[in-house]
Specification:
About 35% of the residues lie in helices and about 25% in strands. By secondary structure, the protein is an alpha+beta fold. Among the domains are: about 5-125, Phosphorylase Kinase, domain 1, CATH 3.30.200; about 170-210. Strands 1-2-3-6-5-4 form a six-stranded antiparallel beta sheet. Helix 4 packs antiparallel against helix 5 (about 190-210). The longest helix has 24 residues, at about 190-210. About 25% of the residues are buried.
Length: about 250
């Protein structure tokens, strides 16, 4: 359950001053240089620190994930890093402000909760890693990516997620149909025909999964090329924000 105080508009209060103060409050003093990075759900920034390092700060969208779900994301990243899977894991934080609460993941505090005038900011800090999208037409690159994803899935199969979402084709398709049925997206003139075709599709999905029930493991969940930072030495994988429980093929067909 997402706290009521967290159900507030997105990022109107996340000004540069607030951003720098939030990082300072967890032990990362910026020198004023920051760059907003591409992100659909969250707000992500690359910051230069006074000690010369570059870090990436991610501020989670209010109301999307609970504290427990974010901590589970961070713990999965730490577990992968400990197994030498090249995932960029969040950095440990240090509370330097009484207004900040830190939550541990796998022993180290990596999620910060900081009160702001319009609600609560949840955020973490990662080392900045550079790379480019992999050349998916190169067979050698594909082979190395396949090996990496296999290692990630081997760790993911060790235990299930407790709090993060589970991909379930039967339940997900029914939820999508219920959403369409409850609104005006389907014109009345086509509703009967659409409903008949939708029912056939649901029956086909049920039959397919009854015949072969895929094993559900922990996944990256958003394994598109933009989250695979390629370098000649190999790949750095970022952004486990959509990590979930589901069939392994979910990471492959993205």
């Amino acid at each position: 359950m997402v706290p009521a105080a967290d159900r507030l508009p997105g990022y109107a209060d996340l000004t540069p001053d607030v951003l720098l103060a939030a990082l300072d409050a967890v032990g990362f003093r910026g020198d004023g240089r920051l760059l907003q990075l591409n992100s659909y759900e969250n707000r992500v920034f690359r910051l230069m620190l006074e000690d010369g390092r570059a870090v990436v700060a991610k501020f989670y969208r209010r109301g999307r994930w609970s504290d427990a779900q974010i901590v589970e994301e961070h713990a999965f990243a730490a577990e992968l890093a400990a197994a030498e899977v090249p995932v960029v894991a969040p950095l440990p934080l240090q509370a330097a402000d009484p207004a900040v609460t830190l939550l541990p993941a796998d022993g180290a505090p990596t999620l910060a909760l900081r009160r702001a005038p319009q609600g609560l900011h949840r955020y973490g800090v990662w080392p900045s890693r550079a790379g480019r999208a992999p050349e998916l037409e190169d067979p050698e690159v594909l082979e190395r990516l396949g090996g990496f994803i296999g290692r990630l899935h081997a760790v993911g199969a060790r235990r299930p997620f407790v709090y993060r979402r589970r991909l379930d084709a039967r339940a997900d398709v029914r939820a999508a149909l219920a959403l369409l049925e409850s609104g005006a997206d389907v014109p009345d003139a086509q509703r009967a025909g659409w409903a008949a075709v939708a029912a056939e599709a649901v029956a086909c999905i049920d039959a397919a999964f009854d015949a072969f029930e895929p094993e559900a493991i922990r996944l990256h969940g958003d394994c598109h090329p933009g989250n695979l930072l390629w370098r000649e030495q190999g790949v750095h994988v970022v952004d486990l924000d959509d990590a979930c429980q589901g069939p392994a093929v979910q990471d492959l067909w993205m």
